[in-house]
Amino acid sequence: MNLPWNQLDAALFERAKALLDEEWLSRDADLVPLLPVVLERGVGQDWHKAGTFRHHLAGVARSLALWQQPREVRLLGLLHSVYGNAFVDLVKFDAGKEREQLKSRVGEQAEHLVYLFCTMSRTQFVQKLLAGELAADGSLQIERNGPEPRESIRLTAYEVAAFAIVSMADSMEQWFSWQEDIYSRFPAVDNSRQQAVHWAASLWPGPMRPSSRMLSQISGLGRALQHPALKTRLPLPPVFANCSQLLSAGHEAAAVALYWSVIQLDQPLVDLDAATATLEQAVALNPWVGEPQMVLAQLYLSAGRNTDAARAAESALQSFCSWGNAWDKRVQWDAWIAWTRILLQSAQEGSWPARLDKLNNMALRQL
Domain coordinates of the chain in residue numbers? Predict the structure, then answer.
């Protein structure tokens, strides 16, 4: 099967390597002054989806750094929920009393973006952006959160672009099957399901299956950035071919089902043909995430197909470096990259071990 392999972008890979260790945030001159302020509000102790609130804020900021966003957008990523919002009841700064305090630390423009992002209706924002309801000048009319009658506001083209990019990073960092099950049909959330009836879906963290429907939405947010009034406002994220391609909901759902059937060992294991063919179909349907390509690279290595393994591993590495966060959240982003580099090294050297115990001894020789 001719698969749409990606070639590794050397510059992107170098940017990703600089973000692999947990200390990357302390080396960002724009973000590091905010770390003590955020940490003293207890974000490292708060639960949030697939980790803690600190993990989430740092993960969103990491993608934005990888995507070369300017200071105020990266600050928005780090602080995007600190005033609370309709989705997260984690108020770390009182919007009625502490705006001036935060403004003095991050500047007026960044604080304005944080406040607006926290207080606008993000449901309306996502729905209208996906529906193509942008004005010719790139602006968008939406409402603020709160009881009726809600205040109507108009976002500028720059604000729309910034909020779309942060929403892409935000969704990718946190979304997996548990959230998908309890937050059905986001952004048009199904509020009819009662926990007492559907209790099994609420058992956190669940099986940790990747989302079946969020990537297609993220691709739609990215595609909206191709609007003539938005396209040059901010650097386009290097995902979905620089936000030029869409992933259909059907392809996304089918691809994750195929991928998960291999991960759950639901394919025949006497030989590799069935699992390999299944993953090849998953990659063909959704070539935008690295995990299926990485697992496929390991299957190729096990079959002695080193050339195919090298192509798959390099393509997987490019996908991981494009996102800055994992799609399959069973392990962290940096761990996926670490194992993928082992696979690529082994494929290039033709050195995949024949014994199981030797897998435990593998090390990357060139950092």
Answer: 1-21+248-285+289-367, 31-244
